[in-house]
Amino acid sequence: MNKIKIGTRASQLALWQANLVKSQLENLGYQAQIIEITSTGDEVLDKPLHQIGGFGLFTKTLDNAMLRGEIDIAVHSLKDVPTDLHEKIAQAAVLERANISDVLVLKNNTDFLKNEENAIIATGSLRRTAQWLHKYPKHTITDLRGNVNTRLQKLIDNNWNGAIFAAAGLERIELLPENHMMLDWMIPAPAQGAIMITALKADTKILEICAQINHKNTEMAVAVERQFMKTLEGGCTAPIGGNAKITGETISFKGILIAIDGSEKVEVEKSVQLSDWKNLGQLCAEEVLNNGGKKLMESIKAEMKK
Predict the structure, then answer these.
(1) pLDDT digits (tens, 9 = 90+) for 179-202
(2) Which of 20, 63, 103, 209 has the fewest CB atoms within 10 Å, counting from its CB?
(3) What is the pTM of this model?
(4) Residue 80 is among the residues annotated as catalytic for this protein
(5) How many other β-carbons are positioned within 10 Å of the β-carbon of residue 31?
(6) Exposure string over 107-131, b if 16+ CB within 10 A, otherwise e
(7) CA 297 – CA 287 distance, rounded (Å)
(8) Looking at residue 150, which CATH number applies to its domain?
(9) Residue from 42, 63, 72, 80 carrying the catalytic annotation
(10) What whole-number distance in Å separates Cα of residue 60 and Cα of residue 149?
(11) Domain shared by 83 and 125, yes or no
């Protein structure tokens, strides 16, 4: 067949991810080329993500390019992809997952954590904001938008104590500074660290090709996390965390719904046999909703409309 046209955002991290897909396809003997496409989320950097469209903002432009026939597949950070895809578009593959953790990149040192003094932490994520404020209620959160390189530069240019990033993104493009600390206590975004490929449902040949680079365990784990998020009715901008792990024949899940100011949270932890993985996300979300999560989600939605 002709060269497979790979659509991607134009940031350094997005291009790294697209090139990973390209190399994996080429290793199978297929030819591929990368096509860069700019999205609204990359252009509007002066407003918080949830105020300019939130979930799906980075994926719609690539969806439209695919529907117009300009690209054959699109490569996404899976945590940015809505749980409901366009009716003509399918998940074609999920690559093996990288580091799931969040990481705090420090401006100087960690003294501000020990002394519980006022500090300024930068992040554009409500999930990270909520979990940080739950642990450090005296700290101030400032909004941080832009690609990885832009956000690192903003940390250098501003008088902040630190900024929170996904570890996988910084590690992939070798930009993780030495002066950092992994936030092992922070529950990551559903599908954090995973790369997803989408294609048209009608393009069966492309779907067959992409299936060859699908990583089954990652696919199952992120499906559980995204089902948890979907059942809670949250987008990527809502303060929802979830992580599923497969160990042998068992799959375990830990999830959280947390107030934006960190004042209230509902957590869940559950393990089932791997053969029962398909309902795990929904079961965990229903437990959260029944334990105060329904009321908390309503207050979060009201807060986000302000």
Answers:
(1) 999 999 999 999 999 999 999 999
(2) 20
(3) 0.91
(4) yes
(5) 11
(6) beeeebbeeeeebbbbbbbbbbbbb
(7) 13
(8) 3.40.190.10
(9) 80
(10) 23
(11) no
